[in-house]
Amino acid sequence: MDAVRVNFALADGRKIVASTAVGTSLLDSAKHANVPIDAPCAGNMTCGKCRVRVVRGEVESPKNRHINDAESAQGWVLACVSTLRGDIEVEVPVEASAYQSGIRVSSSDNPREEAARTAITGILARLGHTLVEGYELREVSLSVPTLDDAQADQERLLHALAGSTGVSEERISVGIGALRVLPHALRETDFTVVATIQTESNGNLTILDVSSKNEAPLGLAIDIGTTTVSALLTDLSTGQILASGSAGNGQIRFGADVINRLIESTRAGGLERLREAIVTECLQPLVRSLVESINRRASSIVRVAVAGNTTMIHLFTGVYGNHLRLEPYVPAFFSLEGLRGSELMAEVNPDARVLLAPAVGSYVGGDITAGVLASMIGRSDSFSMLIDLGTNGEIVFGNSDFLMACACSAGPAFEGGDISCGMRATDGAIEALEIDDATMNPCYKVIGEPDQKPRGVCGSGLIDAIGELYRTGIIDARGRFQREGDRIRKDEWGSTSYIIATAEEADGAKEVALNDADIENFIRAKGSVFSAIRTILAIADMDMSVIEHIYIAGGIGSAIDIEHAVGVGMLPNIPREGYSYIGNTSLAGSYAILSASEAYDELCALANNITYVELSSMPSYMDEFVAACFLPHTDASLFSR
Amino acid sequence: MDAVRVNFALADGRKIVASTAVGTSLLDSAKHANVPIDAPCAGNMTCGKCRVRVVRGEVESPKNRHINDAESAQGWVLACVSTLRGDIEVEVPVEASAYQSGIRVSSSDNPREEAARTAITGILARLGHTLVEGYELREVSLSVPTLDDAQADQERLLHALAGSTGVSEERISVGIGALRVLPHALRETDFTVVATIQTESNGNLTILDVSSKNEAPLGLAIDIGTTTVSALLTDLSTGQILASGSAGNGQIRFGADVINRLIESTRAGGLERLREAIVTECLQPLVRSLVESINRRASSIVRVAVAGNTTMIHLFTGVYGNHLRLEPYVPAFFSLEGLRGSELMAEVNPDARVLLAPAVGSYVGGDITAGVLASMIGRSDSFSMLIDLGTNGEIVFGNSDFLMACACSAGPAFEGGDISCGMRATDGAIEALEIDDATMNPCYKVIGEPDQKPRGVCGSGLIDAIGELYRTGIIDARGRFQREGDRIRKDEWGSTSYIIATAEEADGAKEVALNDADIENFIRAKGSVFSAIRTILAIADMDMSVIEHIYIAGGIGSAIDIEHAVGVGMLPNIPREGYSYIGNTSLAGSYAILSASEAYDELCALANNITYVELSSMPSYMDEFVAACFLPHTDASLFSR
Prior knowledge:
The structure is a homodimer. Chain A is α/β, with parallel strands linked by helices. Helices cover 28% and strands 24% of the residues of chain A. In chain A, 56% of the residues are buried. In chain A, the strands form seven sheets. Chain A has a seven-stranded mixed beta sheet, sandwiched between helices. In chain A, strands 29-28-19-20-21-30 form a six-stranded mixed beta sheet, with helices on both faces. The first copy, chain A, has a five-stranded mixed beta sheet with strand order 2-1-7-3-5. In chain A, a hairpin with a 4-residue loop joins strand 20 and strand 21. In chain A, helix 7 crosses helix 8 and helix 14 crosses helix 15. Chain A contains 16 helices and 30 strands. At the A-B interface, helix 5, helix 6 and strand 17 of A face helix 5, helix 6 and strand 17 of B.
């Protein structure tokens, strides 16, 4: 087996050398060397996101619609279809790792972030739950060791704490996390330290952390999304959010959707690679950044809550979940009790209690049960619907009497995954757009500083774009281009595109354009959401008119234009005042169970009461889906006002 | 800061590239890149073990007695005193990583190994303890999932186990280790698996492991020595040893003795480097090899026992132990309860209970308390002494009424550390030696196959060599050379050596010789042991004649010749039939507490009853030591028969 060397030069300055066999794909060689190259379509040449530039040596790479001749001459290739024949040097541009890179710690000075934090911390009051108890701070003064009293630090601490609490030494233990910081803390303070003490259900005490200062015990709430991971650090004694941030899910190099991740987990070492991509590459650096931003230590994180879809939670815990995608779609677990920090990740206290939001089905996970808790649809007499639009789409319908949930394989369109110019709702994303009927020129709003140029389109911008293309007759009900003009371009591959921003107008070398494949992907995604809504209502033997509230949650972003979303036939045509966008409810629910034991109990009870509907086993679903794959729908009356 | 690149070529074929600043020592650059180069003397140019060969580029390196001119011309240097000035390529010969390399799994076909295993497993009968209970194997049959019954694997298992045991589901939990193997195990067996179930003290059940086969739960006993790590894998239900092996302690590149390790732990990232050197580089590959040798999985290891000296246990658990070496010599802990596998190492079940043999002093650790248990000196009415001769020397004296323990800083001489031709008691080590009075030629026995050539001298061989050099008058009572001949050589550094084997006679490029510095190191080491024995007896107000049994344990090896050891004034001159060599009692004690709960309870009680004597605070110790630094002693009457 001949070996070739690939020298990767990353946008952040790092160099990574991969050694692999002749005939390997460039993308595979990158995956195995942990080079972050996005591959949402998992190497099917459809998304065009794995564009990299070969600057020395050559690869075998077919022509394709994502790379034009000029780009090809400069060495640009799609990594997924490039085959290695000899040693090469490759530049990986920042766009090629847009999904997985970019840990960001949010600044509390930012008013938008401040509002988001206030919305999240408000959940406890709305739920009427009180802060978790059982974590106590206590100052302990120890005798100073001498040659005649050479007791060990731990034994000295136990002795002092037993003296001051009256609890016998046998009933107090010191966690390994506390022990690892004890020697320094004692000697920074002349042997008077502040201990974080957890009272167990049997009255025994565990010392979780010690510090030289009077510092609050920390909580960590995590939402593990298929595309984005978000986290909050809280003061457990007040519920206040001390730091928050997010990062791309490093697993995206194995595919944008959960199915491709599960397939990767069946390969040799795959489960371990996926776990590393989420834990080692993503969560741990994110948590480290959060902790450092407030000058604290990871060992002070003594309670952790995690919400995520069923696949993400399997991959996070290192449990084989491939049976999720094989009939009869069985996960290894729905809920898991008794987890401790040391079993899952290094950057928290090893004895931290870790709570997982329970799942109710293979494709309705803890992110959705957490969302049901946060949206409170299970507490209301009137009928409501929670629609979570992230990489997947999940729908929960019901009221205080019953709750039904299903998932639709919307695909990653709403987070930009299988849209050639798609991206997450971060700086440079077009989040809103209008098209002038006469000139067909667009007018858009870009996330970021006022002078930020567009780099792509996020979910809300995509809905607007399709809605406007349809409204202006540029595309027809099947998504086919009907008009011609400067902004419309046909290429040699038979593909037609609408140019939102030329390469000159855009920030970067690549234009922002929607082609007919993108439009088709979007129509399938929105059809999948709408047909799921129709199907779940049909099972309840109800009509859309019963819905009083629809809560939109998830990565699609707050800029979603309901008028457009209804106009393209994605969301039900109910009175617009019934709609609310309620943000990342998975993170909000995770925050709630972190901060209040009552919230965790309520969540477990909720999960037991949600009926999971497997759409793929519903005969009517496919008919509904086909009918919904038009703009807005084959039955246009559903969307007439 | 100018950077230089060092390309290391290791004997096993690995290439490691280090990038560091001009002016760094070659040894430091190796340490930080995890290149295994032994440095028992911690870079003081005394041991001569860090010999490597610069094959491209140049370093700044002083002439020294370990490298002769011919070797120097070939590029040989001592890494510790070589300063980097530019890019270089370095060959690291196998001898330079003799201590840390070499994971070996012992074959049960080997009669010597079989005898050692029998000796260890015999300990339970000798102690009169019964095998640990609470680990039960139970076959569980689950219903097979269908679309109509898509319960998760874990919930299905709980349901089935509750049905067959009558214990309610709420009182059963599935450990994360079991969950990680559950999906495969269920589908390999048509949903009938064998679960390893632990019964908790409150009657709750924890499923620790599941398997498709009826396989015994595994136990792991570990002895973490400063130089060598040994481990046993057992069948917890029978106590049988299924596999055993050893590896060099990777920390040796930071120094042979505990003091240099503790100093390293004070440097930035040092504690983490030391923990990795023992856990990641040494224990985990060793355990993986043992588990694979019997075709089992690491997750089946559900109980672990560890013995080691106080420093090793701090470094293994990742707890800062530097205060051990600073007055008043205080460890962070003596004993630690409630540890689980996930907190310490990856290659065991995350929920495995981990027992640590408790320490009694800063320099009398769990290895010695385990040895007291195994030697049973605390159960006898007559006075006995346990002398553990490893990298350090520890002495316990007493009977069933009292036990006293102390440690002497013997230095690493008995495991070859600060002896230029010293090595561990493995293949190629001279373990016994005689010298012809007339010709001064040696006659020696080498460990290994019959044709094995000598590579160095281990502890027992060293005692013989010094004893014979003294008996034949080649050296005098102060260790100074007195005779001349072919085997005696003076070099330009003023150093005199006795050539045991010339380069031609030896296996490798380097001769085996003892120089006057080696002899001096040995005399200090043996003086330190003997003066410790005298001091501890003096504290008990007793005489050597009261000692009925002396048990010799530790890495010095079974080949120790008591006659020579008494002859050089290292061991007390009591009737020779009072002596026994009892092997690695730290590992035997670790095996005992792994296999029997009663043994752990006895060990904890023993540890509470041992009085620790800090020799450095005993005024008489220094006088005793000075008197003992002669062959055999300034008071020769102590050794007349």
